[in-house]
Structure formats: C-alpha cells, structure tokens
Design goal:
Rossmann fold; twelve-stranded mixed sheet
C-alpha cells in the first residue's frame, strides 16, 4: 500500500456541477427509503426537479390460476392505485421544499421502466437504494441495480447500508462529501468517471484519493509487477495534470491485490464518503458473477456513484 503527497488546484468560475433532474425509484422497501433520503438531500442542494417512480410488477404466480385476463389487469390497477397513495404520503411526510416534485406510476419490467423514464425526463442522476442480493438469489432473479448501472445514459448513485451517510436532511446544507475514492483502471470509461468524480469533489472541495489496484498472479514475475506499479503512478499523475483546473485536494494510492477487495479496504481505511467508478471498465472480474463495480455495490458499506459514459 502506498500513498503519494497531495496536490490541489483551483476550478474556474462557471463550471459547477449541474444536476437539474433527479430520478428516484421507490418500491417502499427500507433500501428504497434510504435512496429516497439521499435523493431529497441532493435535490435540495442542486435545486433539482425530483421524479419519484414506482413500477407495479406482478409476480408470475399472480398469473397462475387467473380465470380471466381482466383479473390480472384489476390486480395491476389496484397495485398502481395503492402505490400512488403511498407515494403522495411519502412526499408529504418528507416536507419537500423543491422546485418541482413529480410522482410517476407505471407497470411492467422495472429496469425497462426506469430506463424509459431516464430518457423521457432527461434525467441527470438516478438515486436508488439496492437490496444487495448475493449468490444464487441474485443469479436467479437478476439485479435491477446492475441493469441500470450498465445501461443508463446518466450516472447512478447506489445506496445500501453505508458506514456513514454524506447527507443530513435536518441541516441547512444537506450534503457533505468530505472524501471521495476514485478507482481507475485507465480504460476510457474509467477516465470519464474520474473527470465526473472530480466535478463532485469540486462541488464540496472534497479530498480525492485516486486509486489503482494491481492484481498479483503467477503469470507476472515480481519485477514486472514493479514495472506495472511505476506505470500506474505515471498514468495517475497524467490524469491529475489533465484535470488540474478542478478545485479539490488530490492524492494517489496503489495497492496490490484483487480490485474489489482492495477498493473496499482503501475506502474503509480512508473513511471515504463516496466511491466513484466507471461501470464499464476492463477489470479481470468473472462476468458470471458481475464486474468489479457490481461487487463493490453489493458490499453495501459505501455509496457508489457509477458512471457509464462521458458525463458533462
């Protein structure tokens, strides 16, 4: 484990982070309420329009034994009506003081409906809680979060059960991002995520740890690992130089080991409030069990901002 000295630079006026429209899917689970709390605070900070989405999706068992197709339709209509009442109560109880709050109710495939809402409402950021399914259950049921993370055209902030929250609804300034961990693997998407993460850091003058993990395997002798480490330092320093207009404090760190494990250990050691990662990197993860970022998200101890493409 290595940590290099910090560098800082100023950001010119007029280049602040712009988040005009936020989408928050809500399914009334505890995890979705956590995402809702983050969405409220971020919308307050950015004075964003907030879109609350609930999608009715009947279990396949609901169709078994249904004598008439109309019975299924009635069940869906009932679910949508109940969800609408719950969503209105949720918004009222939150005492939202935002430019605009929209409640959207629909039915169908949940990821498809979320992706459609992103396009229709020109969403700049999706904020959602995740159930953090693991193992066989995740393999069989799939993961809504994974699909949105890898297919959405805008960044996705995923929250499960963080060690510390960087939002506080009771304060005049509801968002406090002190430390951001920015893992990079030097793929194009990683570079985009790096630049977008620096915009977040500049918004709150956060400390940034630019991080890279080198995986030791039997295929690489020790002297090659040292060469890769030196190359990683050089690449990270070039990234920082290219973004020297941003207003934040930047340090670098390289660790040796499995990317997911090292990212989580670094985040814990540095008391990270947020991890920002590209969602389409070039890691060595087994695709059967998901990418490195999917593993970091499922761990649940840190909010993760997933950036799938260039976000300006």
């Amino acid at each position: 484990m290595e940590l290099k000295p910090q560098a800082s630079a100023e950001k010119p006026t007029g280049e602040s982070l712009q988040i005009r429209n936020i989408l928050c899917p809500v399914d009334f689970s505890e995890s979705s309420f956590k995402g809702f709390a983050y969405a409220i605070c971020l919308a307050r900070h950015f004075r964003s329009c907030l879109f609350l989405l609930n999608t009715a999706n009947l279990s396949p068992r609901a169709y078994v034994g249904a004598a008439e197709p109309v019975a299924v339709g009635e069940m869906l209509e009932s679910d949508v009506n109940q969800a609408g009442a719950k969503m209105r109560r949720l918004a009222a109880e939150a005492g939202l003081e935002l430019p605009e709050v929209f409640i959207e109710l629909n039915e169908g495939d949940i990821p498809d409906q979320i992706l459609q809402s992103i396009e229709e409402h020109q969403i700049d950021l999706v904020v959602m809680g995740t159930h953090g399914r693991k193992g066989f259950e995740r393999l069989m049921l799939g993961s809504v979060t994974d699909r949105i993370m890898h297919q959405a055209r805008c960044p996705l902030l995923v929250v499960q059960n963080p060690l510390r929250d960087f939002v506080s609804r009771g304060e005049a300034e509801p968002v406090h991002v002190k430390t951001i961990l920015l893992p990079v693997d030097f793929s194009p998407n990683s570079d985009w995520a790096f630049r977008y993460g620096l915009k977040w850091a500049s918004e709150w003058s956060s400390k940034v740890i630019v991080f890279h993990a080198l995986q030791e395997t039997s295929f690489f002798p020790e002297h090659n690992l040292e060469k890769e480490s030196a190359q990683a330092w050089e690449k990270m320093e070039r990234l920082v130089l290219a973004a020297a207009h941003e207003k934040c404090t930047i340090a670098y760190e390289v660790r040796h080991g499995a990317a997911k494990d090292e990212i989580l250990q670094a985040a814990e050691a540095r008391n990270a409030d947020l991890i920002v990662m590209g969602s389409r990197g070039v890691g060595r993860s087994d695709p059967t069990w998901g990418s490195t970022i999917s593993g970091v998200v499922r761990d649940g101890r840190f909010p993760v901002l997933a950036v799938g493409h260039a976000s300006d």
